[in-house]
Amino acid sequence: MVITTLTDIIGHTPVFKFTNKDYPMPEHSAIYAKLEYLNPGGSIKDRLGYYLIKHGVQTGKITADTTIIEPTAGNTGIGLALAALSFHLKTIFVVPEQFSLEKQQIMKALGATIIHTPSDLGITGAIKKSKELAKEIKHSFLPMQFENPENPAAYYHTLGPEISKELGTKITSFVAGIGSGGTFSGVARYLKEQNSLIRLIGVEPEGSILNGGKSHSHKIEGIGVEFVPPFLSDISIDGFETISDQEGFAYTRQLAKNQGLLVGSSSGAAFAAALHEVQRLPAGSSVVTIFPDTADRYLSKAIYL
Ligand code: PMP
């Protein structure tokens, strides 16, 4: 394959099948994980970055002198920065201090400016700061993944149809992590339109509020919320799985050791939740989940130690 821009190879990622030969689950059941960490920027957010920038250009909101500003834990920044290179645009990302150094270095390598906000203000602090910057900087465009309906739309139009084409009618449940909620709600809406019987299970770390818990810090990165994402209101969700850091990281390590899948901790958490789901369903069920990003960007956080 010869390409001239990396945006050409975003999406169409492989699906990994786990059976009861790999992990305990009822006979003839399976977990299917979409390997989104194999996107060129290392995460599912390459889809979003490209979709948001392309959409902004097509609708005239982004022009040649636009600066993209976005609050991000890192992966959306990398996805936006990668797409911005194809359109020769400047990028500024507002990142809460605690997020992985590797992600920040990658964003910088892709030409972005990073602005830090204090860890204790969480993503809410980064959102506030981004809005202030957008007022100060001329010709700025704030995609605002946490509010922009084009976020779930990006997944409704790309990831949803891919999963549906690859696995068709055999899907019993869709289980995925929730950060902005874009991936979960976009894919869930698409799959539910194909088969109204599909169960929808959201995944959060302990320290996130979707199951009624109190907000506190957690080590699993990329998922977990301090407020209910607006995108979740228009789909009927069957339940949320709250996964501890300990369980999420244990599966992250097992996926590397057993299958060679070098994925981040939100993938370990998604896998734990998918396993809980398949174990409570009858034999012959199929659970689909997503592995959003690669392990490389968390090595300084000792994910394998
Ligand atoms: N996993 C990782 C590693 C992420 O960076 C993100 C996005 N923050 C997610 C999962 C969740 O994706 P979404 O924002 O679409 O809910």
UniProtKB/TrEMBL annotation:
Its cofactor is pyridoxal 5'-phosphate. The keyword Nucleotidyltransferase does not apply. Residues 7-293 form the Tryptophan synthase beta chain-like PALP domain. Keywords: Amino-acid biosynthesis, Cysteine biosynthesis, Pyridoxal phosphate, Transferase. GO terms for biological process: cysteine biosynthetic process from serine. One of its GO terms (molecular function) is transferase activity, transferring alkyl or aryl (other than methyl) groups. Belongs to the cysteine synthase/cystathionine beta-synthase family. PANTHER family: CYSTATHIONINE BETA-SYNTHASE. This is Cysteine synthase. It comes from Enterococcus villorum.
